[in-house]
Every structure is written in structure tokens, then in C-alpha cells.
Amino acid sequence: MAPQNGGQPATSEDNLTITTFSQSSRDMHVRVEKPEAGYLCSLSMCARVPLPPDELYDLLISPTDCMRIFKTLKQVNHRRVLSEDSQGNRTVEVDQTGTWRFLMFRGSFTVRMVVEQRRADRTISFRLARPGFMRDFSGTWCVRPFDNASLDALVNKHTPSPLHRLQSSLRAVEQSLGLGATQAESLVVLQQSIAPALAPPPALAKMLQRIAAKQITRIMSDLTEEVDRINSSRSGSSSASSSTAAALPPSAGGDASAATQQHTLSRREKREQQRQAAAAAAEQALEDKKRLAAHVTELR
Hints:
Order of helices and strands: EEEEHHEEEEEHHEHH
Number of helices: 6
Strand content: 25-35%
Helix content: 40-55%
Shape: elongated
Strand order of the largest sheet: 1-2-3-4-10-9-8-7-6-5
CATH topology of the largest domain: Alpha-D-Glucose-1,6-Bisphosphate, Chain A, domain 4
Distance between the termini: 46 Å
CATH architecture of the largest domain: 2-Layer Sandwich
Number of domains: 2
Number of strands: 10
Structural class: alpha+beta
């Protein structure tokens, strides 16, 4: 789907405006906000990705997968784990070279960053390890389930209402009790600030803003391509397994009769197992509802 842009009229070549602009498609929205004094720009991006949050987070923190997926990542010159614990928290120092492209212009840049990964809330924060041509290059990636709770939190993050806080508490209780549904899609949110060591002239600043926005859209396009490949591969494997099972030839003579009896017995056993599992699930659900009601009473 072709991008749809809001704000000021877009340029014909890049479909982006000059100072403050936003670029949207069905599953992604990128916004470059008017920068604070001394900053080139502040970017925000949110995207819908058809992959479970934990799996998507694992892709983003894997050095091997990142080198394979992202075309803007040219090479990793240095990587060192500074700290790590058993909870999935890790701090890494990484020096990497990236590439950029804008119209007929191309180039590369090298930055050394400190990256902090927090598995509990699926966040990846980064900042410059040492300044160079950049005075500040920092931001945070956050991977959440794509659901009403995440979208509501995104809308109400600045001025949450009492109702929103109560809803958040109830959802937290649901998750702690294991009542939350398994999520098949993710909401990816990025907040990023860029400040060069020397303030560029206005004309150059406008071009650099467009380059920064294009970098984000390319990164997300690469990630979306990989997710589509993963989902297509799974779909193909499932279809192949079904076709193979359907194509298996029946046994001959007495073997066929024995196989039929065994199949009938297996079906009876399976139905009995399903009945027992359903009864156990109903009992557990009733117990969970009682525990949830008790927690809600405490919240009040």
C-alpha cells in the first residue's frame, strides 16, 4: 500500500515534508518532530508486525540475525558484553558501521554505542558510548503485544486517566495469573533523538532529517521482509506435512484391519484425553476467576 502522508505538503521525490512531518502506511507510522535546541530531530515510529512479541524481541537482540536481516548494517567492528544476568538483562558495547542512501547520495557512518536489553519489558535502549561527529544518538525500541492494552498505553502515556490506570492494573493481574491470551502480533515502538556535534545549516538539516526518517523505514522494511519469510516458511511446512500424511498408502490385507482397529482405539483415547483436559481447564478457569476477583477487590 502506498504511503499516506499528513502535515505539510510532501516533496515529490521522497513523499516527505521538510521540517515536521509524518509518514504512514497501513502497518507503520513514522514521525519526525520539530527538534529541541541543539538537536537535529526527534523521531518516533510505531509499527504492527505479524510475529509474537517474544520471538520478535529475540530477532532484534541476536547479532547474527541482525547482520543477516538489516541491509543498512554494513559490519560490526567490535562487540563486548559488559554485564548480563539470569533475568535476560544484558548491557553490550558495540561499534558498527551503517550505510545510508538518499536520492542519488550514498554514504556510511560508524558509531560506538552502549545497548541495554531488558527482556522483562522487551526494551532495547541505546546511547553513544563516546561522542564523535554525533553529540547525542540515543533512543529506545519497545516490543509489545499488538492489542488494545498496548494501543491504549501508547495513546495515554503522557496523561493517563484514573480509568486507564485501573485498566492497566487489571491487565497486569491477568498476565500474572496466566489469563492473558497468547499474542500472535507485535507493536514495535521507537523513540530516537539525534544531535550532531556541529549544527548543520538549515538546508542540510532538512536533508539529514529525511535521511534519518528513511533509515527507520528501511530498517522496518527489512524486518517486515524477514517476518514474512518466517511466516511463509511455517505455512509451507504445515501444508507439506498435511499433504504427506494424506498421501501415505494403506497397508494390505490383515495389516489394514489391524491398523483400522488401532486407529479407532486411538481416537477413543484421544477423545477421553480431551474430555479430561477440558474438565481440568474448567476447574482451573473457575479457580483463576476467584483469584482474579480477590485481586480486583484489593485494588478497589
